[in-house]
Amino acid sequence: xxxxxxxxxxxEKRLGVNRRTFLKFCTGVAASLGLPxxxxxxxxxxxxxxxxxxxxxxxxxQECTGPTEALLRSEQPSMEHLILDLISLDYHQTLDSGAGHxxxxxxxxxxxxxxxxxxxxxxxxxxxxxxxxxCKIAGETMTDLTREAAEHAAxxxxxGSCASWGGVQSASPNPTGATGAPQFLKDxxxxxxxxxxxNPANFIGSVLYFxxxxxxxxIDDKGRPKWAYGRLVHENCxxxxxxxxxxxxxEFGDEGHKKGWCLYKMGCKGPETxxxxxxxxxxxxxxxxxxxxxxxxxxxxxxxxxxFNKPLFSLxxxxxxxxxxxxxxxxxxxxxxxxTAGAAALAGAAVGAAIGxxxxxxxxxxxxxxxxNTDKS
Length: 377
Ligand code: SF4
Ligand code: F3S
Hints:
Elements: H1 8-15, H2 19-32, H3 38-48, E1 55-60, H4 66-72, H5 77-86, E2 88-92, H6 101-113, E3 119-123, E4 126-127, H7 129-132, E5 136-137, E6 140-141, H8 142-151, E7 155-159, H9 161-165, E8 178-179, H10 181-184, E9 190-193, H11 200-213, H12 226-229, H13 240-245, H14 255-258, H15 277-280, H16 341-371
Parallel strand pairs: 1-2, 1-3, 3-7, 7-9
Antiparallel strand pairs: 4-8, 5-6
Bound molecules: iron/sulfur cluster (SF4) and FE3-S4 cluster.
């Protein structure tokens, strides 16, 4: 690896991680995307080049700001550095310290100066009913703001379930006509990162891909990056052996629940929900930090037509009867072509390991550096 081609000391200052940690992170993300190791070098080069930082315009519609909160409050300090320094966050209604006309003018200037180059991130649903009057920012409707920002965007990302298809706002009877960015921007390609909240790792992996290759990663029929959403929650769930053996909890606190048995009969939607939570988990602190891991059935937050749609008590449709996770399958599901079975299986584990290792390394590095400023590796 031609390490001397990168200005690593500059990168270390900018991202708050050292060279070794950063390369480990890129290698993990490349592996999880099903790309060869050489792609990790390309990613490192792309991020090291400050000129490649894409300007980002980040809009908020109808939502709780959960996706942004998840990003900022994750137990991954290096992730926070990466996301805030990997991109040039020119406009973000939750994080901007300024407000009012000044900030709105800056947004317009950035969109004008960076026509065809900026990344548009949409968080929250877009209410279309009654000419969009149910969500206004700075006197303009979310519908107008979305159309305006989408016109010259290099790529569009819908971050969270609300932006991906409408989320809870679109649940029947949907009084405001809430919809997702892909449904609203019918003539555009929109990458969706659904989840309530979505896993920040799924966002950053996709942004790294965009920064490196200048295009979005391969997506499935719902706009989700295949590397992150190619497998059912059920396929890698650690309770899967109990499902296969017919051991089920039937209510909170019963014997089966206490023993960690399968939550299918409590309405777990893992068998019909595509996401990598069962392999990646949240916060990368280990210890099963994800809904099923803490004893709650998956409610299908990342699956259109399931999350906020099917009652929690209803039984999930079991889409595939694949072998348990200790027997890897050879064939992918039909619409997951483009990402190999090996890559999809690796996705959660690799990103989890890479980012988790990165976070821990960064933490240890911080401690080491505060004791001794001699780490030149
Ligand atoms: Fe896990 Fe839910 Fe599948 Fe049971 S039904 S194995 S708890 S994902
Ligand atoms: Fe959502 Fe189910 Fe994962 S509720 S966070 S898709 S376990």
